[in-house]
Each structure stands twice: as structure tokens, then as C-alpha cells.
Amino acid sequence: MASTEQRSYKIPPPYHPTQDINEIIRLALAEDAGDIGDITSYSTIPAETQATATFLAKADGVLAGLAVAEMVFEQVDPSLKVEWSVSEGDTVTYGMKFGTVKGSAIALLTAERVALNFMQRMSGIATATKQMADAAKPARILETRKTVPGLRVLDKWAVLIGGGENHRIGLYDMLMIKDNHVAAAGGMTAAVTRAREYMSQKGLTLAIELEARTMEEVKEAVAVVDADPEPATGRICRVMLDNMSLEEMTEAVGIIGDKVETEASGNVTMDTVGPIGSCGVTYISSGALTHSVNALDISFNIENAA
Q1: Dmax over Cα atoms in the chain, in whole Å?
Q2: pTM for the whole thing?
Q3: Angstrom distance (rounded) from CA 129 to CA 139
Q4: pLDDT for 266-276, tens place per residue?
Q5: How far apart are alpha carbons 9 and 213 in whole angstroms?
Q6: Does residue 78 sit in helix, strand or coil?
Q7: Which residue from 166, 155, 198 is spatially nearest to 68, judged by alpha carbons?
Q8: What is the pLDDT of residues 96-126, one digit of tens each?
Q9: Preceding peptide of 138 cis, ω within 30°
């Protein structure tokens, strides 16, 4: 079986130092099969029965998770043959058949639900991302860390497939100094100073994002940037404008200028993302992309068996 590193992807998954997609799939299959397996299929279908099953779109949307589904089928039975008429990120419409799997009928049914669960969730995320990314232009869409525990790589991969971009993957790959950090550190300047000292001691070169909720905090963030625009480590790359009105965001973007990137966050919906994208921010982040997923309806149907 090919590892995730050995595979060729149209859109590669984001890197994570501790999550492995094959292990995520193994756990999902074990959860479903328990210590016996698909007892219904074992007890009703002759072991030698071969079948062909098709994937059918039961709603319009953007497909994601095809590679994950392939990995599911491989883990259940490496002899299963999967063929797609579409690629990751392609649009499907209601009633469209877009893939087939051939092989052991028992293996097909054992893998069915796990493959669909991953595909439907990822396709739902990709579909919502595509809609929001199109509406947000010229701003670019990011997700957040509001993902299902254990599925972060898959959730964030689906965002990439849908045309979005990844925010930080976790707590480890970017510093985001928010109001609670500022309060505990004794101020924004103190928090940034301590962060840079820590990174220098640890030999880290991570970027820093600062959260601002008011114009006063925006001005403070700009002052911190101006005080050391090219630090040895801990460069401030972005200011997050949290829960601001359109008027406030427009003013904040004017204050920040091109010193650093800007990110709008909070109350981002399909109704608001267009106006937000027009106010000059670089990015718009939306937790709803992954925490309020409407799964894309996909069915898996055995069409012939012998």
C-alpha cells in the first residue's frame, strides 16, 4: 500500500507532524468493524461474490476526499479497483455518476460507510469553501482550528481542495497573540518581546499574528511592528481584526497599510463575506467552514454482482 508520502495528489494534504492519514483511516475502519467485522455481509453474501459499485452525487457540489476513499478501499482489500471520472475539486451535479469500485462484494460493503463518511464531510467543506472563496475576492479565505478532533488534516485538506488556504495547522506552527495572551503577559509589547526571546532561545523562526479588537489595539499593533520591522525572529506577519464592523475594518486597513497582512475574523457568513472582502483585508477566516459542515449527499450503489 502506498503511503501518503508516496502518493501523487492533485492537491496535496497539509503537513502535520503527528497526524497520519492512513492511521486516521485505520481507526475509522476499526471503529466500524469492532472485533468481528461486517457481520451482515459475512452472513448474507457468499465469500466469492464479486461486484461493481458506483458513486452517485445526490446534490450539486465540489468533490473532495477521493484520495482518502481510495485509501479506505486499499486498507480493506488492496485488490479492489477504483476508477474516477472526475478529480479532487471538480464540481458534480445531482444525478451524476462519478466513480466505480470493483471487487469483492463483502469488501465493498465493509468499506462503504467509512469511505462515504470521509468523502461527504470533505466535499461539504470543499463546497462551502468554494462558495465563500468566490464571494470573498479579492480577499482570500482561511479556515480556523475549529475542526473535528482527530480529523484536522482532512478538514484543512478539504479547504485547500475547495480553493481556500490554510490558517495555522495547530498551536505549534505560528504564534497568534490574542487578548488573553496580552492580558496574561502584561500588554501587547511585552507579549511580543517575550515571544521573540523564547523563539530565540529555542532556535525557532515562526511568524507572529496579533489580534486587535479596537482601533487602539490596531494602533498598538502597528507601533509594535514599527518598533522592529525586521526582527531576527518572530516577524509580525499579520494583524487579525476581530469582530469589527465594516467601517472599523476599513479604517483599520487604512491605518495598517502595507506594513503587514490583515485578517478579518468573526461573524463571517455568505451574506457578509462579500462586503468584508471589499474592505481591503488580505484574508477572511471562517470557523464555520469546518465546524458547521453540511455534508454533500453521495450514495454508493452495487449495480451488479456475480
Answers
A1: 74
A2: 0.95
A3: 13
A4: 989 999 999 99
A5: 39
A6: coil
A7: 155
A8: 999 999 999 999 999 999 999 999 999 999 9
A9: yes
